[in-house]
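Crash report, auto-generated. Payload:
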Amino acid sequence: MSQENILKVENLVMHFGGIKALNDVTFDIKRGSVSALIGPNGAGKTTVFNCLTGFYKATGGKIVLSAAGKETSIIKVLGEPFQVSDFFSPIAFFGRLKYKMFGGSHLVNRAGLSRTFQNIRLFKEMSVVENLLVAQHMRVNRSLISGILNTKAYQKSEEEALERVFYWLGVVDLVDSANRLAGELSYGQQRRLEIARAMCTNPEIVCLDEPAAGLNPSETEALTKMIRVLRDEHNTTVLLIEHDMGMVMDISDYIVVLDHGEVIAKGGPDDIKNNPKVIAAYLGAEEDEEVTL
Amino acid sequence: MSQSVGINFKKSSIDALVAGFLALILFGPIVGVLLDGYGFSAEFGRVAWMVAIVVVGRFVMSCFFQTEKGVAMAFRYANNDEGATVLSPNHKSKMVWIIPLVILVGLLVPFVASKYVLTVVILGLIYVLLGLGLNIVVGLAGLLDLGFVGFYAIGAYGLALGYENLGLGFWSMLPIAALLAAFAGAILGFPVLRMHGDYLAIVTLGFGEIIRLILTNWASFTHGPNGVSAPLPTLFGLEFKRRSKDGETFHEFFNLPYDSAYKYMFIYLILFAVVWAVLFIKHRLVKMPIGRAWEALREDEVACRSLGLNHVLVKLSAFMLGASTGGLAGVFFATYQGFVNPSSFTFFESALILAIVVLGGMGSTLGVVIAAFCLTVLPEMLREFAEYRVLMFGILMVVMMIWKPRGIVRVTRTGFAARKGAVK
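Recovered output after restart:
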């Protein structure tokens, strides 16, 4: 089972004070699929994303990521509160203490999940190449001594990192802008750079938060092609939030529909298109209700 | 004055009069009233001179900015608050020629300059070290640190107290003080680096004051406000004192007459070497993964976390490396003064070091070096205006922030030549 599903979300609950943003959300994402998370505004899509990527600590439930040959509980690596039983078992205690002190959302990325942001978060005052080099921080030679002495091993590792940078710039069609500042790029280019940056961390699953927002139709089409490249050539699972229904129906193998913090439907694009609950959620009317004007 | 057609003299005259009026308000009470016991005497002449200079200066400036050249210049300055520039991949830095020249001149300084000039240059170099240290924390990692003087104090007191209690000399304390300061940086950093911006600034401000208060009040260990004496460096065991209790002195060994300038020459040469070493390490660090991570953290912490960078450790490394540079500077300060006491480590020092970093340009190494020399050597040159030093300092800051908000030297970024992409 764990090999088939890369991500398992079980009974995910997220409360902000008295507001129940997510209520018992359960879904699985298959390895190598392109899945979409859709729903009307305020349905809790971005909240699910932030829970998955470790930016929010979920109030309850389980999120298990099986990537890089091991299973990672995303809630655990963020650091859980101590339990009474911890004080009797030193191993459990130190495990929890470790995650409490050094845990955080960076561990989620290291476990093989990377993300982009709804409002682009590039390193604006750094060049395009440097943005992608930062993303490879965990893969390069980080030794202070060999870096200062500029040893052969260090140069080799930097050269490999630069090769990967130019590979990904080629994929997102930004080679010509390699030596520009990231903040100077146009909106569409910034979106593509952010995807390249997420891919440079070598993830097994990449979560794209509204990748097509603000793009024109031809750019959206290019993006669709790019997402297919990610899946077909790099065996990356893609999970995306998107409002552009044409694009979602076009590329997704699997769709999860959220409304008011609950999953109201899941399945293939065709099932979703004709699902009465989904139509009701988007158009704002229950089947058995008369819409009076 | 150029008589080109476009100059509107009426506008210039009004500008000049307004500036003169403002100058009268500003300088009138400060310069014009001289306290004399319980009474005071008015000094109209001095005020008149200053106001006249301002009026004429403003008039000339106003006219100049209406000429073609002036308009072009104003345009150039108006555009320079944009960010860094990326160099082209095959950019050849002029530094290849400048650095050997500077090293050569620097090596000649102790043999030609007078003792006084030498001490001023040593002070300048100490501030270069401090500026470089704080530049890592504030300029690269974007962590506002108002208590940097604490690490400076740890280095200085490390040498003085290490000598007094453990008998450690300059050479053994130099690395130990750097480690001590880094350790202090880690202790301070670990709990507080989860904070951002203003909160972090206040905590570090508190840290700097705590160190100073400990040094003042723990009299049994630090001798409180009386201070502690610090040892001089030795050259392979040769001491630079007039006479030595045990061991030989430098001037006796080489059969020279005693001259107190020798010790300053020696301190200068060591400091010069250390500054170059730190400059080199800094130059490498910004190109290394750790330097890139610092800058990325300054730009966007959330994005950094999403890329697998442990933000706490990245910040901590910036804090520790910055602190250790501050510790090194402290050791040199103690040995150069021969004596340390807590009054050298007030908040004003922290503000001065921060000013060096901001004036020089956040993250720019060259800018920090220039600014450090300006802010330490200029006050020495302007000894006559000692009373106005802080005023001058304030005016300089205001003017710089208006004209060059990004510092003297603009940050440049390395360009990378395109290469064939490959994934492995």
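Post-recovery validation: DSSP finds twelve helices and ten strands in chain A.
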